[in-house]
């Protein structure tokens, strides 16, 4: 039986778009070395710059380290996704968001072994079993991390928490990080409360 979140967490598709052929970092470095614009693109991705920190014993391409909620004037609410057992406790340990606050999500992650193409963040939020929102954020394409750049960070578009008595309460969310090849890098359930004030 299919997971009831699978349909909700399906990424949007662009008609006619096809993912390009996979290449190794070395193949990208050798590709059209005399093409100035391609060389600028490769440099903007960081391809071929610095010593890789990829772990040969860890076959994952993308490792999501944390997801944070940034609110101006307050300490970040950070979900450490790399700690042992972290994913198991997220659903049962909600954090509080003040109604009407302006916030921004931030993801920190590492890439290893190959260029990661078209990483996206998908999120479905439900209240009392009814979907109240579905968000999709394009994170982008990234090269493997190096000693000079051990972490990639992406800040999402600013948002505002809903307001009013009817919006206060408990919410459940399911989030997923997926790439252009439909490879799921991480999927987890978590929860939060919208309240009149911070707790």
Write a brief caption for the model:
Helix content is 10%, strand content 40%.
Q: What is the count of β-strands? A: 10
Q: How many H/I helical runs?
A: 3
Low-confidence stretches: none
Q: Mean pLDDT, as a whole number?
A: 85
Rg: 19 Å
How do the helices and strands follow one another from N- to C-terminus? HHEEHEEEEEEEE
Major sheet description = 5 strands, antiparallel
Terminal CA distance? 39 Å
Fraction of residues in helices? 10-25%
Q: In percent terms, what proportion of residues is strand?
A: 35-45%
The helix-and-strand class reads mainly beta
**Global shape:** elongated
Notes on the protein architecture:
The chain has 199 residues and is mainly beta. It has three helices and ten strands. Strands 1, 2, 4, 7 and 8 form a five-stranded antiparallel β-sheet that branches. Strands 3-10-9-5-6 form a five-stranded mixed β-sheet, with no helix packed on it. A hairpin with a 2-residue loop joins β5 and β6. It is elongated, with a radius of gyration of 19 Å. It starts with 24 loop residues before the first helix and ends with a strand. The mean pLDDT is 85.
């Amino acid at each position: 039986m299919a997971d009831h979140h699978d349909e909700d967490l399906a990424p949007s598709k662009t008609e006619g778009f096809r993912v390009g052929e996979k290449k190794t970092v070395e193949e990208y470095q050798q590709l059209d070395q005399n093409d100035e614009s391609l060389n600028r693109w490769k440099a903007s991705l960081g391809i071929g710059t610095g010593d890789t920190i990829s772990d040969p014993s860890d076959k994952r391409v993308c490792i999501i380290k944390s997801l944070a909620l940034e609110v101006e004037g307050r300490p970040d609410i950070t979900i450490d996704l790399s700690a042992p057992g972290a994913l198991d406790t997220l659903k049962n340990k909600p954090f509080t968001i003040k109604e009407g606050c302006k916030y921004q999500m931030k993801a920190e992650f590492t890439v290893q072994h190959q260029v990661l193409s078209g990483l996206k963040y998908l999120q479905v939020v439900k209240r009392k079993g009814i979907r109240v929102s579905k968000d999709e954020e394009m994170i982008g394409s990234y090269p493997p991390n190096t000693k000079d750049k051990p972490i990639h960070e992406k800040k999402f578009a600013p948002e505002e928490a809903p307001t009013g008595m009817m919006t206060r309460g408990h919410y459940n969310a399911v989030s997923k990080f997926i790439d252009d090849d439909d490879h799921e890098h991480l999927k987890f359930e978590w929860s939060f409360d919208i309240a009149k004030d911070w707790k």
